[in-house]
Amino acid sequence: MSPWRAATSCWRRDRGRRRPADVSDRAAGIPEERRNDALRKFERLDDARTVPGSGLGLTLVSAVASLHGGSFELHDNRPGVRVVLTLPAQLLG
User: Fold this and answer.
1) Predicted structure pTM score
2) Were both Cys, which of 9, 20, 25, 43 would link to 86 (CB 3.0–4.6 Å)?
């Protein structure tokens, strides 16, 4: 996700025991064929090489979600990327 672009977040409480949050931006996005690459440690996609970062952000979010029984998905936002972080409701109170 591009730090200079506005992002939006919205918790949706319509899945019972699961609580998904969508976060999106309007930047270049992540091509579908590169989404798995974007989740690998220290992976920097071509468009991201000119901005600060280590290539760990998406990897860490995905790992923490999995550790807590949740999931992390990347989707197209046309333009940009939309991520969906879903966690068990009991973690969120």
Assistant:
1) 0.72
2) 20
Residue 19: which domain range? Answer: 8-92
Cβ atoms of 55 and 65 closer than 8 Å: no
Residue at 26 is within a domain: yes
**Beta strands 8-11 and 18-24, pairing class:** antiparallel
pLDDT in tens, 16-25: 787 788 888 8
Does the CA dihedral 43-64-30-4 come out positive or negative?
negative
CATH of the domain at 71: 3.30.565.10
Alpha-carbon distance of 5 to 27, in angstroms, equals: 7
Give the pLDDT confidence of 24-57 residue by residue, as tens digits.
888 778 889 888 888 888 777 666 556 666 667 8
CA angle 52, 58, 60 (to 5 degrees): 105
C-beta separation of 81 from 29 below 8 A: yes
